[in-house]
């Protein structure tokens, strides 16, 4: 009787995610080496890594990177296995959109800071 309600009036109230909540993935373009480990460990090979080989530098150069959160199951495998830690899971959970194609985040959208910290 004296306890406060547990439910919140979404979207007017903000939920506090539990510890180790797996929300929207954050990506750091500068750290990515285009190794594609994230693609290989993803159960559905979801991340799209576009790169080209730079012969002058003798290494791959990342051109673009994207993850479709309309398909992602937020298992965290890509974050776990990325060798340069350029992926991380944020606590951002509000991913509702009117058009499902808006959930296909490119590296610019993946690189913005989470709205929930
Ligand atoms: S595993 Fe990490 S470094 Fe390798 S392509 Fe994926 S995001 Fe880039
Ligand atoms: S969280 Fe899981 S499903 Fe989503 S991109 Fe990473 S490995 Fe794939």
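-> sequence recovered:
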């Amino acid at each position: 009787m004296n306890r406060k309600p547990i439910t919140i009036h979404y979207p007017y109230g903000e939920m506090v995610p539990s510890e180790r909540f797996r929300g929207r993935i954050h990506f750091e373009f500068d750290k990515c080496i285009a190794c594609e480990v994230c693609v290989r460990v993803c159960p559905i090979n979801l991340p799209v890594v576009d790169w080209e080989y730079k012969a002058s530098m003798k290494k791959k150069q990342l051109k673009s990177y994207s993850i479709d959160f309309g398909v992602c199951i937020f298992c965290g495998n890509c974050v776990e296995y990325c060798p340069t830690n350029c992926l991380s899971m944020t606590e951002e959970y509000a991913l509702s959109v009117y058009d499902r194609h808006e959930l296909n985040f490119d590296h610019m959208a993946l690189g913005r800071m989470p709205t929930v910290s």
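The chain is about 15% helix and 20% strand.
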